[in-house]
Amino acid sequence: MINDDMREIFNEFVVEASENLDKLEQDLLELENDPENEEILNSAFRAMHTLKGGAGFLGLDAIVEVAHAAEDILGKLREKSLRFSADINDAILSAIDFIREAISKYEEGEEVETPTELVEKLRSLASGSTPAPSDEVSSLDKLLDEYGFSHLKGKPIEEVLEELILLPPDERPDELISELDKLISTGEVSEQEYKEKELEADIKMIEMSKEEEEQEKRGEAQAKEEQPKEQKEHKKAEKPEKKEKQAGEKVLRIDVDKIEALMNLVGELVLERNRLVRGFQKISQECVSKDMDEFETILSSIDRIVGDLQLAVMKTRMQPVKRLFQKFPRVVRDLSKMLGKEVELVTEGEDVEMDKTIIEKLEEPMIHLIRNAIDHGIEPAEERERLGKPRKGTILLKAYYQGDRIFVEIVDDGRGIDVDKVKLKALEKGIVSRERLDKMSKKETLFLIFHPGFSTREDVSEVSGRGVGMDVVITTVSNFRGTIDIETEKNKGTKILMSFPLTIGIIRSLLVSIKDRFYAIPIYSVLEIIQGEDAEIKTLSGKEVLLLREQTIPLFRLGSILGVEEGSIGYIIVAQVGGQRAAFTVEELYGDEEIVVKPFSKIVGDIQGISGATITGEGKVVLILDLEGILKRETNSAAII
Amino acid sequence: MSGIVPTGDKGLLHRGDKVEEFLSLMLEDEIVGIPLKKILTISKTLDIVKVPFTPDYMEGIINLRGEIIPIFSLKNLLGLIETKETSRIVTLDTNHGKAGVLVDTIIGVIRLEENQLEPNPMVGRYSAYVRNVAHIEEGLISILDIDKIFDTIVEH
Question: Which of A153, A280, A489, A569 could form a disulfide with A532 if both were Cys (CB 3.0 to 4.6 A apart)?
Answer without folding.
Answer: A569
